Amino acid sequence: MHQRYGDIVRVAPDELFFAHPDAWSDIHKKTGKQMDKAPWFYRPIEQKPRCLVEESPEQHSRLRRQMATGFSEKSMRDQEPIIRGYIDLLLQKLREKSNDGQPVVISDWFNYTTFDIIGDLVFGESFECLGSSKYDGWVKSIFDTCRPLTLVQALSFFPWLKRIALDLVPKRRIGLEEDIKRQQQHTEAKMRRRMAITANRLDLMEGLLKKKGELNLSTDELINNAQLLIFAGSETTASLLSGVTYLLLQNPVAYQQLVDEVRSTFGSEKEINFGSVSQLTYMLACLNEALRMYPPVANSLPRIVPKGGAQILGQYIPEQTYVAIPQWALYHHEEYFAEPNAFHPERFLGDSRFANDRRDALQPFSVGPHNCLGRNLAYAEMRLILALIIFNFDMKIDPDCRDWIQQKNYTLWQKPPLKVYLEPVARKSES
Description:
By secondary structure, the protein is an alpha+beta fold. It has a single domain (33-297, 364-412), classed as CATH 1.10.630.10. It is 50% helix and 9% strand. The protein is built from 18 helices and twelve strands. β10 (409-410) and β11 form a beta hairpin.
C-alpha cells in the first residue's frame, strides 16, 4: 500500500499511517508536547483499571521510574539464575521429545518457556507450562481474547455499531467478558501471593510494590500492570524466537554460520550466560533481521495529535488525528531496505550491498519516553535460549512448515505449529 501510495496513507477519515524512518522521531517525541495513546486501541474495554501504557504522561513517568528498577543491570544479574533454570528445563524437555524421531512443535515450547520465566519474574511463581508440557488456563485465555479484542478495537470507530454488535452477539460478549474476568481473578490470586513475599526480590514488580502507597496504586492497578508485564514479556519474545528459528532453517547458509559461531565460541554449556552471549555478533544480526522480517508487534501503536496540530514528515497534521507507523509495512519497504523480503543478517554487519539501508527505521521496541522497558532483558533472554538450543541440537524444519510465516495478525501473530526435527549434538559429557 505504501509503496503504491507513498509514505503517508489515510486509512480512515481521521487516521493516517506513516511508513518512513523519520516518522519515529516526529510521532514518538522525546521532548516537547507528547502525543497521547489512542484510547480505542489501548482501552477498548473502558471499565478496565489503567496500567502503565494507558496512564497520563505524568503518572506514566512515575510508574516507569519505579518499574525500571526491575530491568536494571543489577536486577538482570539477580534474575539470570531464575531464567537459566527454566531454560535448562526446556533443554531437558526437548531432549526427551527428540528421542522418538517425531518433529517437536518448538513454537509451543518457546511460549511455555517465556511464560514460565515472566511468571516467576512478576509473581514469584511460574505458570508450570514447562513442567506440565501444556498451556496454563490463564495463559490460554490471553490467546483466546486477542482476536475478539482486536474486533472490539475496530468497532470502536463506530460506537453505535459496537453497541449493536455486542448486543446482537451476547454469548460472544459474555464469553469475552468471562475470559477477562477469569484473567483478573487468577492475576489477583497470584498478585496477593507475590505481595505476601517479604524478602527483597529484585523482580519486575518490586519497584511498584515498594512505592504502592506513594503512587496511590490500588490492587486492581497492580494487577493490570502485572498483566501488561506478562503479555509484553512473554508472547513477543516467544514469537521472535519462533520467527528467527523458522528464518534460519529456511536459510541454510545463515543457519550454518550461526551454528559455527556458537559452537566455536563455547566449549560447554557452563560457558553460556548473559555476558558471553552478548559477544555473539552474528546471532545479534540474525535476531535483528528476524525483528525486521517478523516483528512481534507487526501493526501500529496509534497516537493522537495534540491540540494545535503537529508537523510529521514536514506535513501539518490537524489535532485529534490518529497517527501511527505500521511496522511490518515499513520494514518491508524496498526504498528503505534492499531485498526487503529476503533474510540477510549481513545487512547489520556492514555488508556493502546494504549500505543504503535505513537501519534507523527498525524500532521494534519503539522510541521516546514510551519505549519498551524490557528491551535489554528481551535481547538477553532470546540470545541465551537460542545459543543453548543451537549448542545442544541440530535442527531441521518439517516440510509441512515451509510456509509457516504466512500468518494472520490480530495484535499477535496467529502462529500455526512450527514443527522442527531435533537431533542432540553428540559430545563428551561435561565434568
